Amino acid sequence: MLRIKFSSLFQSYVEKQIAFQAENYAEATGERLVLQLKSLVGISAGLSANMYNIDRMLSTLEDPNGEFYYGVMALNDKIVYSGGDHDIRFADFKGFSESFHGAKYISYCKGKGLLFSVPVYSGKNIKYVLFRLFKEEFIIKNFGVVSYGGKGYAVLRDSKDEIIIDSDNEALGKSLLWGKRGYQAVREKLASGLNVSIASAANLEVDGVEYYYFVADLKLPGVVLTGVVPAEVVASEKDDISFLIIWVFGLLIFMFSIAMIYVVVSEKKARENKELLREKENAESASKAKSIFLANMSHEIRTPINGILGMDSMLLKECKDESLRDYALNIQSAGQTLLSLVNDILDISKIESGKMEILPVTYSVFNVLNDCYNMVAIRAKDKNLELVMDISPEIPAALFGDEVRIRQIINNLLSNAVKYTNEGTVTLSVWTEKVDVDPMQGNNGNQVELFIHVKDTGIGIREKDVGKLFRDFVRLDEKRNRNIEGTGLGLNLTKQLVDMMGGFISVDSVYGEGSTFKVHLMQQVSDEKPLGDFYKLYKQQVNVMDAAHEKFIAPDARVLLADDMQMNLKVFAGLLKDTKIQIDTAINGAEALKLIEKNHYDVVFLDHMMPVMDGIEAFRQMRQLAKSPNTNTPVVMLTANAVVDAKNQYMDEGFSDYIAKPIREEVLLSCLKKFLPKELVKSVAKNSAVESANAENEKPAVQSSTKLSDFLDEATGLAYCMNDQKFYKEMLGEYVSADKTEELMEAFSKEDFEYYRITVHAVKSTSLTIGAIKVSEDAKALEMACKEGDFDFVKKNHEAFIQKYTALIRLLRTEFC
Ligand code: ADP
Questions:
Q1: Within a domain: residue 551?
Q2: What distance in angstroms lies between residue 476's CA and the mean position of ligand 1's atoms?
Q3: In a domain? residue 336
Q4: How far is the CA of 303 from the centre of ligand 1 (A)?
Q5: Whose CA is nearest to atom 25 of ligand 1?
Q6: Secondary structure (3-state) at 504
Q7: What is the per-residue pLDDT across 363-414, written as a single tens digit (0 to 9) for each?
Q8: Which residues form the domain of 60?
Q9: Quick one: 745 and 629 in the same domain?
């Protein structure tokens, strides 16, 4: 089809080319003919001017080759002059009559030749016709059209279709093309072509041979050029060209197809990408929604846990029954685990939902390390692990960074180290190195690299597992660690926090020998003063804390607490019961405001999240009150938002302090001590019972490094004695006189563990009754060991217990007996 289409396209192209060629032939031939006429016109003018010298003038012009000659004909068919044949008649050539009518004309007469004729004027009248007659045999030579290098056939015809100039291409000329079937159609096509242009061409197949016919008008009126040329002459390259065209076209189609395929494929890809993108977006938004949900859930879960822990701490405070206290302690420890788990989840979901921010503040390095130490020390001691704080004294005392996060990182690593170590040592090494000043990195020379290494002698991590360690929620060695509580959240969170702070975390571990987790962070220096000896600072601080924890009463002080949870209100009141402080409560910010407008408070405690009006809003409105008895009252924020950023936010808001829930008694008391007016606070000696006993007996105080207060919890003891001081004193006397040291020693030396058990059981009960809790607990442990047949434990701990027990007896004896 393509070929056919091409053929026809090509045909019309060729036809156009042939018509154009015919036009050129016609023009060239026409020029030659017109030239003849023009020269005749010139001669005619000469003749007109000199009618009497015709003979002379023309005879000088005659062609020496004899191809043509001149003649002059008068109107009466009389030859006035002739350079050749005199037998030329007026009727032989149409040119005579035309020229007598004023025309310049070319006419042909078979056998006589080709005649060019022009009029000769005498004044305004035509007197003669001047002609130049080319003899028959010289016509083609002078005027024949040589077409297509002689391979074509072209003739000039007059208006009667008579040939006036023939072609010498005899073969074609003699062929019977003209008048063949189909020629009529060609003629018509040629004629119609001539109507719109001065030349046209058409194609016709005759006897299986393809020809192109052509026709072109000459400038001379009535003369046309007609001709024919075999198609093979003009279109020998047609097949080649059409093949080329098809080839090129094919190539184009091929390229086009490739382009289309590319377009389709890339469109498909784009669509797939778009879908992938959409899916990714969906997944991301789903994950974000999940994170937000988790964050909200964690928040909601934390509130009741805080309540439970608060209530439980009340139980611990008030309950004297040993086994109930045990339960309460278990609740406390499980609750704390749950709380830290929920906090981890909250943090991870915060990071995932992009809500976690690093909030740098100036922090005391000692405070951070001290708190981390305290957090883990008890657990380490319970497992009989040595906890070593290898803290460089050169560390700047205060750094600038995200304190909350750094605490979290150290706590996580330390508690893991304790968790995954059964014996030996956990060492926290912390040091800093100065960073060289490098203005290129925007470093003003006030930065240090902070190194935190947590080393343990624990179970270690297999080499193949090290890579997985920081990945999402991975727990390793599940079989071996199945008894160890954990979620795999900790290290993932730790890594994310370190990453957020632009730091590095890595681990070196030998399976079965222990691990070292290494964290490396950049921190700004806030106070260059070196930290100094950690243990020395620690001891100083413990002494200060002890002083701060001394109990007090403030019966004239009045505080307000706003919290929407009834349980929290109860816990708060319970914790402050002994202080005798007056407590007003409100269940939301709006209620609190009403009370604040009315009454003066020494301290106001506001919970953050409350219905109707939250703590922050209540605080803002309180500060805007025009007239208030509480213009200068310190306001403390209570919040479960222990995890984060909260502290800075509250302090920026203008709160005086912030207490995290669950509220710890010592924190609440030291906060009150800080803010209550000094004149309202009355100190209460811790061992008042002992003191009053002293006063009664007027005995000098013992000069001993161990104090009675190290052994006795007066409150517990008094509670067992119905808070009757006298009765308590009697009980103490009883205790001393029932000294079981000798019996215990004897039973131990005889390895009579049944007797030992009975004796130590008695010590357990009586010790608890007087408030010697530690001795009672140790006795209980020995009793249990005897019961379970763990005599090694008894052997290991007997000596230490006896020392403690006798020391207590000695002290009591000196003081009371
Ligand atoms: P988990 O709550 O299970 O302790 P972590 O993310 O804190 O979660 O730790 C992930 C896993 O890495 C742990 O389950 C444990 O197998 C391993 N691991 C972490 N710290 C130590 C360590 N100090 N010694 C040995 N293994 C550890």
A1: yes
A2: 7
A3: no
A4: 28
A5: 460
A6: strand
A7: 889 988 988 898 888 889 889 999 999 999 999 999 998 888 898 899 999 9
A8: 32-139
A9: no
